[in-house]
Amino acid sequence: MSVLLETSLGDLVIDLEVETCPKTCENFLKLCKVYYYNLNAFFNVQKDFLAQTGDPTASGRGGESIWSYIHSKSQPSSSSSVPRFFSAEITPKLKHSTKGTVSMAVAPFAEGSGCASQFFVTLVDNADYLDGHQAVFGHVVEGLDTLDKINDIFVDKEFRPLKDVRIRHVVILDDPFPDPPGLSQILEDPSFAPPTRPPDAGTGLVVIGEDEDPLTSSIPEEEEERQRRAAAAQSSALTLEMVGDLPFANVRPPENVLFVCKLNPVTRDEDLELIFSRFGVIMSCQVIRDKKTGDSLQYAFIEFDKREDAEQAYFKMQNVLVDDRRIWVDFSQSVAKTNQLWSNDIKRGPGLGSRGRGGGFGGREDLVQTRKYRDEDGGSGGGYGMVFDIPSSGRDKDRGSRKRSRSGDQGGREKKRSASPRRDDRYRDDRRERDYDRRRDDDRRRR
């Protein structure tokens, strides 16, 4: 026989000792049935000892048995009375030996000793000094983590929690006892609910609500939303840094680079540079093109020498007609140009894995395939790390022309011999990479 207590810190499932303590279990189950414990606060929490609740007034002096409660509700004007307490069922074989032991609090005086509605849950093992004094009637079988949260809350000098912790709802999973007389009439009466007062019980102590954060309760809603967004952005940036998509979490996109999209496919680099150069000195202007076909992807990056020039171009060139297309201009959000560890221009070397210097993709070799486009032709090192061709620098062109001039007056066989030692390093690196990938694939197939 068990009951589910839904608290503001989590759920507790309590198994009851109905055979050993039938009267105590019946009292507890019927109080749950009339929602007596709903919104009751934990008014006494002693760390590594116990957490007490069951008093609607949260004063430690309230509460009554189910029979007294039924009589007070069904016959409020009757001169006869039903005792508030009932005799405690203290059984020697039921001890406070484990964490999560549930016991009825025994009142030693005032209207006779006995139990009413208040109960507590132990927060530590081997609380044997309670044996023989308090009436054990159940054990927590699910929700020990909830007990840990209750145990860690801050309390005042009288062990009252500074933050409101309550029983929100009670669900009876199994009830073997018949309803006592008058219980059904109370359930049909909408005014039967017991009074529930704040856990300070009129002491004047200010208690923090269960849904309040004392650090942000005085912050305006707009500022709280801004802080929430900043925390989410920082968390996402750390994740991207871990997987290698960002060089470091606090990286920021350059403020002097503009992103231009919705271009006409016929628009060239020099066309955009000529149009945007009236705002200031342009360091680079690149229309992004497809690697295989060479077709324009209809967007570009324009890097200005000064941030002020980029801002002026942003305000002036928005929605301007260029080659019969109205372009869209915004500040670049890409940080690939600053990510040298992730850059496609890093060469690989033997014995260093799939990447020449390690780092970057978190050791995942499948992500390295995205870098092979530019590595196969050798990147120029000045681009944005995208999948597109960057024109070779003038130094590479001059080097190629010098090769051709040196070998132009020799025969075919002489050309091969003279060109081979002067081959660029990137071709040897590419061949070494292909040999490495082939050996790796052979090893995987053999496994």
UniProtKB/TrEMBL annotation:
Belongs to the cyclophilin-type PPIase family. PPIL4 subfamily. The keyword Isomerase applies. Keywords: Isomerase, Nucleus, RNA-binding, Rotamase. It catalyses: [protein]-peptidylproline (omega=180) = [protein]-peptidylproline (omega=0). InterPro entries: CRIP (IPR035542), Cyclophilin-like_dom_sf (IPR029000), Cyclophilin-type_PPIase_dom (IPR002130), Cyclophilin_PPIL4 (IPR035538), Nucleotide-bd_a/b_plait_sf (IPR012677), RBD_domain_sf (IPR035979), RRM_dom (IPR000504). It is found in: Nucleus. Residues 6-172 form the PPIase cyclophilin-type domain. It comes from the Eukaryota. This is Peptidyl-prolyl cis-trans isomerase. One of its GO terms (molecular function) is peptidyl-prolyl cis-trans isomerase activity. Residues 256-334 form the RRM domain. Pfam families: Pro_isomerase (PF00160), RRM_1 (PF00076). PPIases accelerate the folding of proteins. It catalyzes the cis-trans isomerization of proline imidic peptide bonds in oligopeptides. The lineage of its organism: Eukaryota, Fungi, Dikarya, Basidiomycota, Agaricomycotina. Residues 344-447 are annotated as: Disordered. Its EC number is 5.2.1.8. It comes from Rhodocollybia butyracea.
